[in-house]
Specification:
The chain has two domains: 2-184, Rossmann fold (3-Layer(aba) Sandwich); 191-314, N-(1-d-carboxylethyl)-l-norvaline Dehydrogenase, domain 2. The chain is built from 14 helices and eleven strands. It has helices spanning 16-21, 34-43, 59-63, 72-78, 89-97, 120-132, 145-150, 165-172, 187-215, 220-228, 235-238, 262-278, 284-298, 309-316; strands spanning 2-6, 9-13, 25-28, 48-51, 67-68, 81-84, 111-114, 136-139, 142-143, 154-159, 176-183. Helix 12 (262-278) packs antiparallel against helix 13.
């Protein structure tokens, strides 16, 4: 509850959310995405209890008010709503079911929201393990990248019990502009995997197109302008152009630093490949994109943004 002066009167402003449920929220995984997400929870008045496998990752959040503990089990002991943001399926399995995992000390009725991008089968496995402990697990992977995480403009794709969606939505709206219910556990992951497969294919296509146009003598900014007013327009050409100097504020204009790493894209494409194999779904372009990003990861591009495919293609042709 807060008060501000309006003329000669004092007007009391009451936040229903702050009255209703500003109980502590646990947050596990304070990397490039997790740290700004947890920061936005703090900005919205939620006490945050956090941990990360790298203690130095916790310092910035601790400096702005988060309580830092030693393990996921310690988080579960102190919070009945927990968000995890982790790099891969093995990390999620360890954080939830490991010897110092969440499920060692989870309270009955705890809401567990996993925003990692992992195999949908692992999400379903974690949901079953949580259910045995009386807790509720939902998958809620994100789209939007580090910039959107900082600005609380992420898109969350949520899978889980529909009756728990509103409780999850309360927290997720503090960190994102769009929260979409997709269905049962695992469907959030399915939506994310499909999105990122298309993103990778689109980025490779944009990089190839820009490279060809430049070799044909076109100015890259002019070509970009033409593409973005024509049928070839896509997110990679319009919002995240891979050619250095064409667009400000994107990784290509910062030596491909920041953004969404090549290894993470290769990982997500691997998830798409695995699920496509399991469902006997042909994904010829998705499979090729997976191979390309795996090769890039082994040739010095692992920690660069995935838009560095443009630089990779230029080097492949000897320029």
């Amino acid at each position: 509850m807060g008060r501000f002066e309006n003329g000669s009167k004092y007007v009391w402003v009451v936040s229903l959310r702050s009255m209703a449920s500003k109980t502590p929220v646990g947050f596990i995984g304070l990397g490039n995405m997790g740290s700004p997400m947890a920061t936005n929870l703090l900005k919205n008045g939620y006490p945050v209890i956090a941990t990360d496998v790298f203690p130095e990752s916790c310092k910035e959040l601790q400096d702005i008010g988060a309580q830092v503990v030693d393990s996921p089990a310690d988080v579960a002991d102190r919070a009945d709503r927990i968000i995890t943001m982790l790099p891969s399926s093995p990390n999620v399995i360890e954080v939830y079911t490991g010897p110092n995992g969440i499920l060692k000390k989870v309270k009955k009725g705890t809401l567990l929201i996993d925003s990692s991008t992992i195999d949908p089968a692992v999400s379903r496995e974690m949901a079953k393990a949580a259910e045995k402990m009386g807790a509720v697990f939902m998958d809620a992977p994100v789209s939007g990248g580090v910039g959107a995480a900082s600005l609380a403009k992420l898109t969350f794709m949520v899978g889980g019990l529909e009756e728990e969606y509103e409780a999850a939505q309360e927290l997720l709206t503090c960190m994102g502009a769009n929260v979409v219910y997709c269905g049962q556990v695992g469907t959030g992951q399915a939506a994310k995997i499909c999105n990122n497969m298309l993103l990778a294919i689109g980025m490779i296509g944009t990089a190839e197109t820009m490279n060809l146009g430049i070799r044909l003598g076109l100015d890259p900014k002019l070509l970009t302008k033409i593409l973005n007013m024509s049928s070839g327009r896509c997110w990679s050409s319009d919002k995240y152009n891979p050619v250095p100097g064409v667009m400000e504020g994107v990784p290509s204009s910062n030596n491909y630093q920041g953004g969404f790493g090549t290894t993470l894209m290769a990982k997500d494409l691997g998830l798409a490949q695995n699920t496509a194999t399991n469902t006997k779904t042909p994904i010829p372009l998705g499979s090729l994109a997976h191979q390309i990003y795996r090769v890039m990861s082994s040739r010095g591009y692992a920690n660069k943004d995935f838009s560095s495919i443009f630089q990779f293609l230029r080097e492949e042709e000897g320029q």
